[in-house]
Amino acid sequence: MKRIVPAIVCQAALALSLCAQGTGELHFCLRADPKTFDPQLVEDEPSETVRYLTGGVLIRLNRSTQKLEPELASSWRISENGRRIDFHLRPGLQFSDGSALTADDVAWTIKRVFDPALHSPVGDVFRSGPGDVETRVIAPDAVTVRFPAPVSALALQFDQLTIQSHRAAGDQAPVAGPFVVAEYKPGNYVLLRRNNRYWKRDANGRQLPYLAGIRLDIQQNRDVESLWFRRGEIHLIGKLDPELYEALARESPASVHDAGPSLDWVQLWFNQVSAAPISAVRKGWFASTAFRRAISYAINREDICRVVYHGHAKPAAGPVSVSNRFWFNAALKPDEHSPSRALELLASDGFRKRGDTLFDRAGTAVEFSIVTNSGNRLHERILAMIQQDLAAIGIRVHTVTLDFPSLIERITRTYDYDACLLPLMAGLDPSDQMNVWLSSGAEHQWNPRQAKPATPWEAEVDALMRTQASASDDEARKAAWDRVQQIVHEQVPFIFLVNPDAMCAISPKLRNGAPALVWPQVFWNVERLVITP
Amino acid sequence: MTRAFTAAAWLVLLFTALACVAPVLFTRSSYSEQQRDFINTAPCARFPLGTDDLGRDRLARLVYGARTSLLLACVAALLATAAAALVGGAAGWLGGRIEKTALWGTDLFVSLPWLFLLLTVRALLPLDVSAGASVAITFLLLGLLGWAAPARVVRSRVRSLVASDFVLQARACGLSGTRLFLRHILPNVRPVLLAQFFVSLPLFVLSEANLGVLGLGVSEPLPSLGSLLRELQNYSMLSSRPWALAPAILLTSVVASLYALATRTEAQP
Amino acid sequence: MLGVLARGLSRIVLISLLAGLIGSVFVRLGPGFGVSAEDLDPRLSDATRAEIQRRNSAGKDVAAYYGQWLCGLAHGDLGFSPSLKRPVTDLLRERAGVTATEVAAGGAAGIAAGFLLAVVILACPRAVASLLCGLGSSLALSLPAAVIALICLWLDANPLWAVAAAVTPHALQYLTGVLSASAMSDHVLAARARGLGRSRILFRHVLTPVAGELAAVAGMAVSIALGASIPIEAICSRAGIGQLVWQAALARDLPVLVNVTVLLAIVTIGANTLTDMVIAARNPVRGSLP
Questions:
Q1: A525 contact partners, CB below 8 Å, separation of at least 6
Q2: Strand, helix or coil at C126?
Q3: Are A133 and A146 in contact (CB under 8 A)?
Q4: Which residues of chain B are within 8 Å of residue C139 when distances are taken between CB atoms?
Q5: N or C: which end of chain B has fewer CB within 10 A?
Q6: In this predicted model, what pLDDT tens digit does every residue of B225-264 receive, in sequence order?
Q7: H-state helical runs in chain B
Q8: pLDDT band at B265 (very low <50, low <70, confident <90, very high)
C-alpha cells in the first residue's frame, strides 16, 4: 500500500499534466541550418532531424529495441527473395492538411524517389541493380513495390522513406508525422507545431504527440549549447562529447546518460592508392600488412579511451560495434597495446630500431604524416597520443589538422596524404557499408574506386559483401559479414581505434526519454515525450 | 608612474630572461611528454601550473609557447609596421598620384579574402613540414598581410603633419625634402607606429591560434601561445580549471609592460 | 563637391568589383573547392555523388562565372548558394541588418570608449586610472574574440558589447598615440605657459588640430568590427553576415563568398573613403582626394 499510493499519485500527476492536450514546447539545438525541407533530398543531419520529426514512414525502427515496427503500414510482406514488398496501410490516415493518405501517395512517393533527375539520397539506399522500380496500387490501402534486384534489409530501408502527398509539393507540403514545420528563421531557429491529424494514439486512446511543439535553435558551438542546457533553456543534448558529459555530470548527475558504445568508430588508415603523389618508399611501407598490424599494436587504445574519452569509449576490434548485438563478430578482440609485438612484426618486414629511430631495410628513417579535421578536440588529442605511442617504437609522426574541405579533397580527389584519422558513422545493417567494403566503392578509403581488386583478400571481401547483400536469410548474411570482419581484422586496411559511447543530456523536466544507441538517440520517441512544468 | 615603469621594466626583463633560458630549463620532452596518469592535474609542486588534457606540463608549454609566439609575433609585427610605415609614409609625404595609388592598393588589399590564400599556402606546403617551420611561415604570412590597415593610419598622420605649421616653417627655412622627412615627420609618426606595433603583437598571436583551425598554425607537439589561448574557448574548462587563464595573463602582462615602457620612453624629452 | 562624391563612389565600386574578382580566383584555386561532406557518405550512389559535385562546382570557370554574376547583378540576381540552397539575395537581405547594427553600434561604442579612456590617460598620466586603462586594453587585445563573446553570453549582455570590446583597445591605442603627440606640440606648451585651463587646452588645442585623424579611427573601427563579428555571431548565434561568411568559407560556397567580399569591400572602402574626404578637407595639401 505504501508503494502503491505514491505510484498512483505520480501517474495522476502525469495524467493531469497531459490533460490539456499538447502541452509544453521541447527545445533543443541543431548544429547548422537545415539545407532542405524536402525529405527525399536530405543529406545533412539538421535536415534529417526535421524529417524525422515531421515525416510519416511506413515502417519505423524502434531505436530502443532495434526492432522494426509498423507505422503508416499496419503490416508488410517481403517476397521474391527481397525483390518485392507488399504494404497494407492503416485505415483513416491523413496528412496534416486533412487530405487522405492512401496507396496512391505511397506509389507517387516511391516513383519520385527513384526519379533519376531528382538524385535522391533516399533512393540510393534502395538501388540494388539497374532497372526501374514498379509500384502497383492494389487498393486504396494496399500497394506493392517490386525492385529490379533484391534489396538487402529491405524493410529497414523504409525507415528513411517519408511518404509525401501526391497532391502538393514543395517546402509547405503537408506531412504525416507528429509535427509540422510552422516557422523557419534562417540562422536562428525552426519552429514545429503539433500535427493534430497524426494517426498515433497512446494506450488510453489519447492522440499523440503530447508536446505542443518543438523549437530547434541553431547553434554550432557545443559550449554554448551546454550553457543553455545548464540554464534550462534547452531540454536535451544529443551526441554529447565526453568533456561536457563530465562537466554536466558534476553539476547534475541525473541529467546525463551514457547508453554504452555507439555504433560509430574512429579509425586510422594508410594511403594505399598506387597513383598517390607520395614517395614510393612510403607506399611500400603502407602496403605491408605487417607494418599496418605493427602500428595497430603500438597504439594504446585503452589510454585513448581513458584520457580522451574519460572512460566513455571502448577499444574497437572491427567495423561493427559491440552494441550492434546481432551483427557483431564476438570472436574478434581489439589489438592490445604491445610495443614489443609491434617491433617483432616490423622486424619480420625488415625494419630495425637503432637508438630512438626506426629504419626500414633500405636504411630510411620511418616517418610520415597523419591528417585529421581541425576543430575537433577529440581527434586532435587522439593524434597527439598516437604521435607519442609511435615515437616509442621509433616512428616520427607529423600531425596535421586541416579544415574539412581541404581534408576531403586530399582523401577523395588528390590522394595527397600519408595517413588519415576520421570517424565513420555506421548504421545497424552491413548494407549501409557496401561502398566502404567493395573495392570499387567510393568510400573504400585506403584505395577507392579500384577497377579490379588490388589484393586477393579484397576480392574475397567483394564476393562476401555481394553475398550478404543478395541473401534473404539473416543467418547467411551474418556468416558472410562475420567473415568480412575477420578478414579486415587480419589485413588491417583500417586500424580501428575506439567505439565512442553514445552520451546525451536530458533535462529532468523531460519525461519518457529513453536514450538509445541509434540516431536519433534522445528524441526517437518524440511523440511520447512530455515537458513537466 | 615611476613605480609602474620600474615594474614594467622588471617584467620585460623577466620575460626576456625566461625566453633565453627556456631551452635550458625545459627540454623538448618537458613540453611534449604526456604523463597519462596525471591528466588535468591542479597546480602542485611537481607541476606548478598543473597539466593539460594529455598530462603535459602546462608551465613548460607556457614558457616554450610564449617564447615561440612572442618572438615570431614581434618579427611579424615589425615587418607589418615597417611595411605600413613605408607605404603609408610615402603616400602621405609624396601625395598626388602616388598617394592615390597607395590608397587604392591598401583598400584593395584590406578587402580581399586572404583566408583562401592562406589555405592555398597550406595546400602547397608538404604535410611533413616541421612544426617550427610551419609556425614561422604562419607568422611571416601574417606580417606580410597585416600592413594595409596600419598603412592608412600612418598615411593620415603623415598628411596632417605635412600640413602643420612647423613643417611649413621648416620648408620656408629651406630644409630639403629628405631632411624634413627624417627630422620632422618621422619622429612625430613614431608614436603611431609604436601604437600599431603593440596592437599588432597580440593580434598576430591570436591570429596564429585561429589559423590553427585551418591547419596553418603550429603542429603538435610544439606549443604556441595562440594554441594555448584557443583552449579558453572551452567554457567548461574555464570554470573548472581557472589556472588555464595563465596564457592570457602572460600575454596581457607582456603587452601592457612593453606598452608602458614605450609610452614612458616617448614621454621623456 | 559632386565631382568629389562621384569620384569617391566610382572608386568604391571599382575596387569592390576588383576585390570580388580576385576573391573568386582565390576561392576557386584554393583547396577544397567543389567538395562537400557528402563525399564521405557511404550511402550515396555514384550518380548522386556526381550530381552533388556538379552543383558544388558552379563557378569552375572563374572568368565566365564572374561575367555571369555581373550580368545577374545588373538584374538584382546575386546567384544561388549551393551549400545553403537558397538565393544569395535572400540570405544577404535577412542578415545584413543584424551585422550592420552590430558593427555600427558596437563600433561606435568602441570608439567612444576608446576616446574616453584616451582622454583619461592623457589627463591623468600618473594616476592609477591610466594604468588600469592600459591593463584593461591589453587584456581585451589578448583575449580571443570568441572568448569575449562567451563572456557576453555568460553575462547575458548584447553581443554588440563584444564587438565594442574588440574595437576599444585598437581605438584606445591609436587615439592615445595621436592625442599624446598633439599634446606635446609647441602650441600646447605655449597655451599651458599662458595659464589656460586643462579642459580648454584639451578641447581647443589638443583635439581640434587632430580632428581629421580622429575621423580616421572610424574607418579602422569598421574593419575591426567586421572582423570581430565572425566569431561573435557564430558563438552568440546571431544570424548575420559574419556567420554566413564562416559557413560559406567552410563550404567553399563561391556565390556567397563573392557577394559578401564585394559587400564588405563596399562597406570598408566606403568608410575609408569618407575618412579620406574628411582628412583632405581638414588638411588641404598638394594632391587631392582619390
A1: A63, A64, A512, A514
A2: coil
A3: yes
A4: 248, 252
A5: C
A6: 888 887 777 766 777 788 888 888 888 888 777 767 666 6
A7: 2-25, 28-32, 58-94, 96-111, 114-124, 131-145, 148-162, 165-172, 177-180, 186-212, 225-230, 235-240, 246-267
A8: low
- A138 C-beta neighbours (distance < 10 Å), count: 12
Residue A315 amino acid letter = P
Per-residue pLDDT, averaged over A271-285, amounts to: 96
Choice between B35 and B152, residue whose per-residue pLDDT is larger: B35
Instruction: Write down which chains contact chain C via at least 3 CB pairs under 8 A.
Output: A, B
DSSP A532: -
Q: Which tops the pLDDT comparison, B61 or A7?
A: B61
Distance CA A238, CA A223 (A): 13
Nearest residue to C256 (alpha-carbon basis) of C75, C96, C53, C37? C96
Cβ(A423)–Cβ(A414) below 8 Å: no
- The C-alpha cell at B262 is 614605450
Which of these, C247, C273, C272, C275, lies nearest to C260 by C-alpha position? Answer: C247
Which range, of A110-114, C143-147, C244-248, averages the lowest pLDDT? C143-147
Residue A499 has a pLDDT of: 95
CA–chain centroid gap for C12, Å, is: 15
Contact yes or no for C186 and B166 at CB 8 A: yes
ipTM of the complex: 0.86
CB contact under 8 A, C181 and B152: no
Residue range A219-236, pLDDT digits in tens: 988 888 988 999 999 999
Rounded CA gap, A526 and A26, in Å? 9
Which residue has 592490445 as its cell numbers? A336
Query: With pLDDT > 70 as the criterion, what percentage of chain A qualifies?
Result: 95
Q: Report the C-alpha gap between A126 and A450 in whole angstroms.
A: 23
Contact A348, A288 (CB under 8 A): no
Q: What's the rounded Cα separation, in Å, for the pair A234 and A225?
A: 8
pLDDT at B215: 61
| Cα-based distances in Å from A237 to A265, B178, C256 | 20, 67, 31
**If you measure CA to CA, which chain B residue comes closest to A401?**
B215
Do residue A403 and residue C32 have CB atoms under 8 angstroms apart?
yes
Q: Which residues of B fall below an 8 Å CB-CB distance to A?
A: 32-34, 36, 39, 53-55, 119, 122-123, 127-131, 212-215, 219-221, 233-237, 239-240
Residues C82, C253: contact at Cβ < 8 Å? yes
Q: Give A-chain residues touching B33 at CB under 8 angstroms.
A: 388
Give the C-alpha separation, A197 to A22, whole Å.
12
| Interatomic CA distance for residues A171 and A36, integer angstroms | 8
The contacts of residue A320 (CB under 8 Å, 6+ apart) are A327, A328, A329, A426, A430, A481, A485
The set of long-range contacts for A179-183, using a CB threshold of 8 Å and a minimum separation of 24, is A179/A53, A179/A54, A179/A209, A179/A211, A179/A213, A179/A214, A179/A526, A180/A54, A180/A96, A181/A37, A181/A50, A181/A54, A182/A213
CA-CA-CA-CA torsion sign (C123, C128, C134, C139): negative
Residues A119, C46 contacting (CB under 8 angstroms): no
A233 to each of A204, A215, A216, A515, how far by Cα in Å? 31, 11, 11, 20
Instruction: Name the phi and psi angles at C78, rounded to 5.
Output: -95, 5
Q: Quick one: cell of A32?
A: 547548422
- Please state, in angstroms and rounded to a whole number, the distance separating the CA atoms of residues A510 and A522: 11
pLDDT at position C207, please?
77
Between the CA of residue A22 and those of A19, A196, A510, B69, what are the distances in Å? 9, 9, 14, 57
Instruction: Identify the pLDDT of residue A20.
Output: 44
Is the Cβ pair C178, B192 closer than 8 Å? yes
List Cα–Cα distances, A456 to A460, A522, C2, in angstroms: 6, 43, 79
Q: Cis omega before residue A334 (within 30°)?
A: no
User: In sequence order, which residues have a C-beta less than 8 Å from that of residue B82 and are 6 or more positions away?
Assistant: none
What is the per-residue burial (b if ≥16 Cβ within 10 Å, else e) of B14-48? ebeeebeebeeebeeebbbbbebebbbbeeeeebe
